[in-house]
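Subject: for your reference before the review

Hello V.,

The reviewers asked for a structural picture of the protein, and I figured it would be easier to keep everything in one thread rather than splitting it across files. Below is the amino acid sequence we used in the manuscript, unchanged from the supplementary table.
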Amino acid sequence: MLSALLELAGFYDPPFQMQAEVAVEATTSVSDSEVSEKFLRGRIDFLLISQGIWIAVLESKSSQLNLDTAIPQTLAYMMANPHPEKPAFAMVTNGGEFFFLKLSSQGRPQYDISRSFSLLPLQNELCEVLRVLKNLESNIQP
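And here is what came back from the structure prediction:
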């Protein structure tokens, strides 16, 4: 289903490039008073790139997991964006629920989270998820 959504939103077409299982590393300090840094390593499930700028990180989790558990991992991956002057966008899904993240890394990093979208029969919002993806795709075109 995720692949079909990305195709409908135009993310398989130029200028986008899809990469799967991308290894990333990010360095972060725990607080301003600490001298030590932490190195975070992981793999991004799917990464969309346009003209060298990271556009979206998609983190997919098991359908049994609460999506809140994916927020720290996804934000850590987004911090590895090699172009921090541009915001990074992410979609997180467990197959039944979706939400979107935006990370601005200029200065002090700040993020925002969309509301949750559901596929449950009474709240099937798959069209809304596609609408957000298409809006994201059209707003980030060069």
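For the response letter, the relevant points are probably these. The chain has a mean pLDDT of 80. The chain has one domain: 2-139.

Happy to draft the paragraph if you're swamped.

O.
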